[in-house]
Each structure stands twice: as structure tokens, then as C-alpha cells.
Amino acid sequence: MKKLIYTFYICCISFVGHAQQTPAINQSKSILIKEVTIHIGNGEVIENGFVGFENGKIIEVGTKTTEKIYEETIQGNGKHLYPGFIAVNSTLGMVEIDAIRPTNDLNEIGDFLPHIRTIIAYNAESKVVESVRPNGILTAQITPRRGRIAGTSSIVQLDAWNWEDAALKSDSGLHIFWPRTYRRGRTSRGEDPLVYDQKNYEEEVKDFNRFMREAGIYQQKTNPKQLAYEALKNTLSGNQKVYLHAKEKRQIIDGIIALKKHGIEDIILVGGDDAHLIIPFLNENKIPVVVSRPHRLPNTDDEDVKLPFRMAKKLIDGGLLVTIDLSGRMERMNTRNLPFYAGSFAAYGVPKEKAVQMITLDAARIIGVDDQLGSIEIGKDATFFIAEGDALDMRTNLLSHAYIQGRAINLETHQTKLWKRYMEKYSRK
Amino acid sequence: MKIRLFVIISFIAFVGYGQSYFPTNTGVKTSSTHYQAITQVTIHPVPSKEISNGTILFRDGKIVALGENITLPKNTIIHQNEGMHIYPSFVELQSDFGIKTTNTPSGRGRSTQYEAQRKGYYWNDHILSDYNALADFSYKESDAKELRSAGFGVVNSHRRDGIHRGTSVLIALNDMADESLRMLNTKTAQHFSFTKSSQSSQYYPGSIMGAMALIRQVFHDSKWYAQGNAKNKDLALESFNENKNLPALFETNNKLDVARAVKIGNEFNVSFVVTASGREYEQIDLLKDMNATLLLPLNFPKAFDVSDPVSTQKISLGEMRYWNQAPSNPKVVSDAGIKFALTSHGTKKEDFYSHIKKAVSYGLSPEKALLALTIIPARLIGQQNQIGQLKIGAQANFLITDGPIFDEPTKMVENWVQGEQHIIEKTNEINIDGKYKLEIDGVEIDIDIKNSISKIKINSKKDSISLNTKASVKGGWLSLQIQNDDKMSYAQLNAKISDSEKITGSGVNFDGKSVDWTLNRIGNTSKQKYSFKEKKNPPLSQITFPNVGFGFKVKPSSQNLIFKNATVWTNEADGILKNTDVWVENGKIKEIGKDLSATGVNEIDATGKHLTSGIIDEHSHIGASSINEGGHNSSAEVTIEDVIDPDDINLYRNLSGGVTTLQILHGSANPIGGRSAIIKPKWGENADKLLFPGADAFIKFALGENVKQSNWLSFSRFPQTRMGVEQVFVDYFQRANEYKKEWSVYNNLSKKTKSKTNPPRYDLEMETLVEILNGERFISCHSYVQSEINMLMKVAERFGITISTFTHILEGYKVADIMKNHGVGGSTFSDWWAYKYEVNDAIAYNGAIMHSQGVTVAFNSDDSEMSRRLNQEAAKAVKYGGVSEEDAWKFVTLNPAKLLHIDDEVGSVKVGKSADLVLWNDHPMSIYAVAEKTMIDGIFYFELDKVNNQLIEIEKERNQLIQQMVNAKNGGQPTQKIQKKQAKEFHCETLD
Prior knowledge:
heterodimer, A: alpha/beta, Urease, subunit C, domain 1, TIM Barrel, 2 domains, eight-stranded mixed sheet, about 30% helix, disordered N terminus, B: alpha/beta, globular
């Protein structure tokens, strides 16, 4: 005990987070989970089902009982089993404590940074990363945040010794933050804080197009090597997804048309606060949407006071593929609220299982890992968890087990330890 | 229009005003004793009187006589102005005419300045009551001309710098004289504002509420100083006292500040003349009730340029309505019977006259308009005997117009100031408007002249082909420059105008040869001057409560109704009651039971729904114009109650999430923050109506990184460590104790001794702290780590007080037992952490642990977004730490009510309590729950099923207004660029 307390203090003192939980050992035994309600992730639910997995992969899914023999059996007792939730457009592990600049590795300077990669700065041992797992978030896309072209995102699993272990898919997405139609106003000249500036916007769009054109031409030759253009090779050859971060209608349309002109087809819209106004356009161009989280305020005074909550339903009803954008104020610590974002969308019209699908299979499809993740299907990674009940509801999002690639991960965190430590203190009286 | 000046003796202007006892060095002493008279005019000496075919006689700048039959002395210079109208020149009260702009002191580096730099004056540099505008006054002819052209003859000028700006001077806009005559008064009025002086970097006051507190303190201090109680000399207070009986003018920046200025005036029995915002129509009843006196600007906004639909989407309906409704402001104010003068402040001088006419076209009576420009402003500064009306002995300041002054086509022609003619509309003596034929060397050119008496317009045609022609009339000479149809050669011609039938002159022809030429009149042009189209104002948008998109068309009223068959979360011993009815009457819960019904009482079917008491947010920063007063490490003198912003859309958004009571807390910029406001978000009511009636008084304290200023580059303010924070509290409580003693000794003196003893100084800050010591005001303290939490409890105990609430209290779980013993509650975030170092150990189990140890626990938002879904936050107490659902629900209802000492009125569903209720479509802590109806005091302030209709109405009105703006633009009215209004979001750390 003494030693434990000592360790605890060490952790407190050094504020650059240290993972409290040691990564789990590889799955060595075949495991059967039975008598669970399985939320497949594709909208279907299996009551009284079972899941068998071995060597990190799902080998069986069904109802009632199986013929196969497993080395270990877990009684589900009617609990609920879900595919691990997937955090898209997240910055987990990139900043530990917001106010402390030395812990911030998120914002690189420069406008065109396709060569910048989040994966090498991803802190697999972040205390914030650890804190999201007990809520069912087991996979995350780690994205950059600054620059017109901000760099590449990678997809990580959340139980790792280091970024290399964590990486499921490195540099799989390129992130473009489309120019804004307004600029910061010069308040000293009596301007409003934000001023719509068509000219400035057009200039910035032009700069972007110029850069992309140059990059395109660059691919025809090899010397001398230029880092930034070189980094766009995958993008321009169609081997990398491109995430267009844009909110307003004009930005979205301009951005998509421009990217298509540069030969980019695999485009995903991130944010898309006006997306509901241009559903046919998005459908026509087959653009999935990573929709802004419902826990945000309407953008204008006259906007539907419930619009942030109603967006997902509008887009899904329109036939679009949708997952949830985690970005926003306090986004890292709020990552653990991802299931509740999905639940909030369900409160405003998205069917409950569709809401689950948004952050499982549809998320996996959008970020391109649905061959491996996102649903409880044979052959996929055994990345799932068991909850007391409805995992989208706070009251029943209580995890007893969670597996990442078959590894039974520890659901304790810095926070649960402190909880237990102080409850123990009070129990002494 | 034609003016003939029969006699022009210009030298009068130069010699007329020599002072009799001044020596002359330029010749023999000459002085004018002539009279001047304007005859055959319609005189409007006061708005309600009219003398037709009158004469006005004046000498030495003053009116000698006026009326119909005036016998003119022989030595009178007569100006016949047949058909013209004469009005008193306008009086401008809000101006900095002739005053140098102040310079901002050069950079003092990065460190903030907390102390005053003026020595021997008030402790705050922004109180410049010793300043008199005369010190820097320098008459500026170009500005005078602008003002005269707007109709003004006299301006009250002050330096627009500081919170107390000192005193003003009254100046006649007479270019022909010097200060010896122009200066009508050298100390006319005192001037106030809420804006700091640019000459000092002293940080305090850093907010509007700080400025309000400072003004109050000045009033208190000046009284105390006048009694001779101060040991030191304070030149600012001495001047303040000297001038305290002068009229007091108050400049403000927005509609809420207008009411705030009036409020302060009323507290101290000072009738401030407040420069208004132009949006008084939005709170007209309030201003009337407050008995406000206003100086109304005519700052009508331009229409937005709505040509781009994308950016048009970003203008709020409220802003569009402002454009539509603003011109009606003067009428509304006038109709409400509020005393007001008009000012050109905030309006381009060249637009002022047309804006008055616009106001008149929107229903302001011409008589009221004229009063508000002349007699009323004159009276407001006590100068009605010399200015503002035409009467014997008054200044000969008058306007000559060519028609009734506010008729659309009327022009101001001359503005006489102190009996001196100042021309506004430069007129040429002879009107040569008409069609002419010009012959030059056999070439015939048709010439069409319009508007020759002011700005001449000319069209010329050769064989019906237009020629480029420029023309000007100056000093009775007409100049023409005609470009030939080859676009290469020019004819240059000029002529002295003596006859409008035939104009002859000389010049060069297209070949460059000298020629004589003649313009022969062949006909009339249409009289453009009188062809003004009847302008039609667009229909006015309805004013809503508040006057924004989601405002109510009619203020909602209290309901007498029964919620039928609901699942009722009582928060009382009854627990959760199924299939239960709740009867609401007169804003209160009348009865709870089964099968309730009464004739004439509406019923709402709540089958399958949940009815709870409204959500109470212990920690919010919405609905306020400022949050932090960080200018001192204690700001107990400021109060959020002063700065409630009832129009904040976030109040409505909170209602949509079931919030019915909030504590608007001061921020965490300093250890002792400001007093808080407990409000109900009664959307559509004025600020004061939002305040929770009879609620206990609270104040915000703060600990930790924010008060140490750890997370930004600030190293100069004490305290910089938690050690220092402790001492700040000890110091202030200590001083408050002494202050209290001092007063109680004084108050207990016998009447006789008292009259001979100097009273202690009345200190708003100390008064507040004494309230805390007396148990009349309660502390809600922003806190994070256990050491500081423990420290404050110990300090409080030393001074015999109990901290009421620790807010944030993220490490409360570590000291829950000590908190319980002290008797303090904890209002925390459900799951926020990792945003700064002191929340490293913030855990989501905090609420549950504190609760388990018997601490009263609440979950708060500190965030305009989260406050809309505190029901979800309550559910997190179930998840993190296993709090029972019933107890978890109390975290956002009954417990915060207890922490705010309002649990006898709100916080549960109990007979006799306020009907602050929320109807949910589901279990209120289910993630799928949506608030369908939110009721405060029996009034529905939010109903989900009405939102769609509201959105349709908003869209419809927006489109109407966009159409109106398109029409305005097409009609030639100027427009403004669209800018995105970004409402400021306040959090604890917002420094404002």
C-alpha cells in the first residue's frame, strides 16, 4: 500500500501524464461471451446472443448456444455487448493539459503542412486517453488542427505502450481546413470581431488551389524532392482519404468542387454545420459527414434552438453516411462523452441502433477501417465491450469488460483509483 | 428661391464686436451701433407659435424685437427674406467641439497598472472631475461649419474622456467673433460616462459594473469629503463638490447602459441627461418608469447590403429589425412622454437634418422635434434665457429655411449665430434654370440648366448628341467647359450673370479662337426642387419581447392549469409519484394528487411524461454584460445585478433545456470577486424583473490559478501564490471588522456627540464584506485543490463565518469530511478536467463522494452550452459513483436551491412552491429525454412544439426585411457591409 501511495504521488507531481494502466497481454485463450444482448453495429440487435473470439479476432456470433469449445466462458447475464466506439476527428494524446503549453503538441505553424503527422506525437500513455476507455471508446482517429492543410491523421487503438503499438493505420487521412469566409475584424477601426470578407476568402482559396496545382505537377517529376509536395503523393493518387473541415454552405461547396478538380474523390466532410441545407449536393458527390457534436450552441441567434441536436437525423434521413465530430471546446476530456453525443442525437430522432451505428460501423466505414472494426462480425477484431445496459445512456454505460483485439483491457483509471482511495479513507472512520 | 441682400456692409463683422474698454492699435476707435432686421418672414419663436410676415430685429448679437409690426430704427440694415421661415438655431448638448483628443500614454510595458498616477487627486485616474473643457478649447471653423449646417447655433462641449469627464463649455458657433463673445458659459454641465480615460492605464474599473461601483463611491466620497473628514487634499473631489449642482450629462454606448446610468442617477437623486442608444423603443416602459431624461441620437443604421445570400444568413433578425425600427425611436420616446432632447451625436453631421425629417416621417410631431432641438436642450443646461427660443434679450441665433423646417423639400439656407449671418446653402443670386440655345461660330448647342442656385447641373446636346459639359457658378460668374463631339477639343466660356433671359460672355471656341457668345433662353426646365417623390417608409416590424427572433409577440401570462397523469419527481419525502396530477394556479403549485380537475381550468395530458421542478444552475455567466472586475484583488463593491442582459439568447436556450433559476456569478479574476445575481430566465422581461425576488445575497470568491494569474503573463498583482491568497482574505476580513467597529462606535454616539464627530468613510467594498461578517451575504467560492479549500474554511472559521458553497470544488472529494464539518456545500462539474494543472486530480466521482459524506452537492455548468442539458449531467452522478437516481436529480434542482437559500420557494414539486416546472417526454435523466415545456411562476417560457412555428415566422419576417433592404438599396439609400456579430461567451476566466 505504501508503495502504491508513493507511486501515486510521483504521478501527481509530474504533470505530463503517465498512463496508469499497463497495456493488457495478448489474448492467449479462446473466449466465449454468452447470454448477452449484442449490438452488432449495423443496426441489428441479437438478444440472448453469444460471441466467440480467439487470437484477437471474432470467430463466432450467434444466438443462444454454440457447439464450439472455448477455454474461457464469460456469463453475460443479459448485459449488452457493443463494438468499441470510434472517436473520429479527435485529438486524444496530443495535449495533456490545455493551459500548459509544454503539453501541447497539436498546432504546428504554417499553412500547407501535408507532411506533418500526428502519429509520432501521439501520447499513448496520456491520462486522458486512459479515461475514455471505461466509457467504451476503444479506437480513435488522431487528427491535426492547424494549417490550411494541417497534415495527416492516423487511427490508433487505445491500449498501447507507444504510438507505434497504437497505430492501426498510419497517415490514413489528410486534413484540409477550408478558408473561412470571414476574417478577424480590426476592432480598433470599429469593425465587428468577425467580418465577412469575400476578397480575403477568395485569395485564400486561390492560394490553396495554387498549392495543389503545384503539388500535382510535382508528382510528374522526382527531383529535387520537396517534402510538402511529396507528402501529397498518396492523396493525389487516390490512396488517402481527404477530410474537408468546413462549416458553412459556401465553404463546403467550394471545397468539394475544388478538391474534385484536383482529382480527389475520397472526400469526407467534417463539421458541416450547414450540411443539412445541401443534402442533394452531398449525396450526388457521395460525401460522408462527420457531423459537429450535438453539445454545441446554435451558430446564429435565429437558428433552431435544437438544430445541433437535430442535425444527425436530418443528414441520415437524407441518406448520408454520418458519424460524430469530437472537436470543440474541451474536446479531449469530453471524448469520453462520445456515446452520449450519439444518445443525444437519438433523443432528437435518430433511431437508437442507428445512433450506435454512427459511432461504430459507420465511423469505421468513414475512416476506412470497416474491414477490421466497427461491428460484431466474424473475422473482425475482437474490439468490443460489455455494459450493464444501454451504452448510450449515462446511467447504464457501466462497463464490466472491454477488449481491444482480444486483449482484456484494464478499465481502471487515474480517476477510479482516486475514487477508491478516498472512499477507502472515509470508510476508515 | 431667391434672396436679395439689399445692403451688404461687410466690415461690420470685423469691427462690430470690439470690447469697449479694449485699446485699439489699428486706427481710430470705431464701433457699430447698427441694428439688423430680417423682414417679411414667418417667425417661429417657439415651436407652438408662428408670426407670419414678421420681422426680427437684433443688435449686438441679441434680439431686440420681433413681431408683425416692428418699427425699425433708422440705422437698421434690412434683410428681406420674403417667404422664408425663421426658427431658433438648434442646441447641441453632446459634443467635443474644439476639444483636443487625448493621447494614450505610451506603453508601460506588459505589467498592468493598478494604481492611480495622478497625485493629489482621486484614487482613480478616470475621475477627472477637476477638468474644465476651457483648458483645451480651441475654436475650429471647419467643425463649426458642419455643426451650423446641421442646424446648430450653440454647442455644449466637453472632453469625451474619463468616467467623470469634468465640466463643459457653452459655445456659440459664430465664426465672426472670438472667445470673448462666443463663449456663453465656461462651466455648463458635468459629464459622465462608463468609459475610462485614455490618458491613464489604471486598470480599475475593468468592467461596466466596476464603472458603476466607482461612480457610486465617488458620490459617497464627495459627500464625506465635503464634511471635511478627509485628512488629505483631493482636488478631484473638491471640484466635484464645487460643480455638483451643475446639470449632469451621461454618455452611454448601448440601451442597457442607458438604464444603468438612469438607475445610478436615481439612487443619488441626480437627474442625469443620458445620451441614449437609439433603441429605447425596446425598453420604453422601463425608461418611463425610471423617469429618465434622454438625449436621443438619430443614429439610424443603414440597410445591410443583402446582395449575398450566404452572408445575409448571418445577420440576425434582431439586427434587421433595428434597421427597420430605429427611425421610429424618437416617436416612441416622445409618445411615452419621456423628456428628451435630440443630439447629432452618433450621426454624421451632414445626415442629421435629413434624419430629423425621417424621424418626423415616422411620426415624431414637428413641434416635439423642434422642442427637442431648441428649448429642451437649452433648459436641460439651464440656458433657456439666452438660447433655444427667439425672444427679446436672447441670443440672435436662428435658422432661415425656405419652408416649414421639417417638410421634406425644405432646405436650411442660413444659420445666424449671435446676429451674424452664416450661409448654409450657398445660393447664387440669380436663378438661371431653364433651356437655352448657345451659338458659337455657327454651331448650335442646346443647353439645359438645372439647380443653378446651389449646385448647378448642366446638359448640352449638339444635334441630339450629348456633349460632355462642366459648369460652375461662382461669385455671379458662370463658367462652361464643353467638349466637342470629336472628344478632342473644348470650348471654354464664361459670363457675368445679370439676366436670366440672355447671358452673354466671352471665351474660346472649339478651335481655340477667342469668341463672344450668347445663351438665349428658350424655355423652362421642370422644377426639380419640388418634384420630391412622396417617400413611403417600409412598414414597421412588430417589437417583440425581447426584440429578437425568438421574442414573444405578446408577453406570456400565468396559467391556471393541471398537468394530468404525469410521473412527478417531487424531490420531497413522497419521492417519485406515478400517474399524478399537479395543479398550478397564480404562479404557485396549488395541489398535487390524483384525478384533480376543476371547471375552467385547462388540463395538459402528461401521460407517459415526467414532471419535475425546474433545473437550477448554481454557476452561470450568461445573461450579463460583464463578468469580471479584475482591477483590484477584491471587487466586493461590484454587482452582477447591475449588468444583467435580459436579451441574451442564451437565456432562451437555457429555457429550452429546462433551466428555471440561475446564479450569475462574478468571474474568478480576483480572490474577492463581485456580488452575484440570482435570476429566473424570464425571457422578454427587463433586467430587474429577472432578479429572484427576496433571494439572499451572494458573493463570488475565488482561489487558485485564476486569482494567482498563473495561466497568462501577469506578474504584478498580489497575490501570485496560494500563500498570498490566504492573506488577501485575512487582510480584507480584518479591515472589514475594523470598519464595522468604527461605524458601530460612531452610530452609538449620543446625538450631540455625533454631530460633533466626523463620520467614518462609507466604503461600498467594506459594506459588502461587513454583510458577509454579519451573515447577511453568503460566499460561493471558486475552488480547485484541497489545500486552498481547507485554507478558506479555516480563514472563515477565524472570522466566525461559514462558507456557503464551494463552486467547481474539483478536489472536494479529498476534504469532504472537513467540508461536512464546516457546513459548506459543493457545486461541481460532473466530469470536466484536464484543462489546467489544478484539475489534474479532478474526477468524475467527485459529486458522488462528497454526497456520500453528507455534503450538499450540486452540478453546475459555468458554460452556456452545458447549462442546456444539466439533466444529462445529473445522470453522470448515477454513472460515476452510483448515486441513486432520485438523489442525482436533486444535484441539479433541490440541492442548488439549498445552496442558494431558495429551497423554500423552488427546487421541488411541493404545494405552495413556485410553479417552476419542466415537462419531459421521458425519464429526465435518460439520454433520450427532451424538455417539452418549461414553466416559471406558472408561465410557459418555452414550449418545444411552438419552435417550428417560431422558425417559420422568423424566416418570413427575415424575408420581408431583406426585401425592404433591397428596395432601400435600389432606392438609392446607402447600405452597410454585413459583419458577423459574435456574441461574447463568458466563463469564469473571461476578463471583462
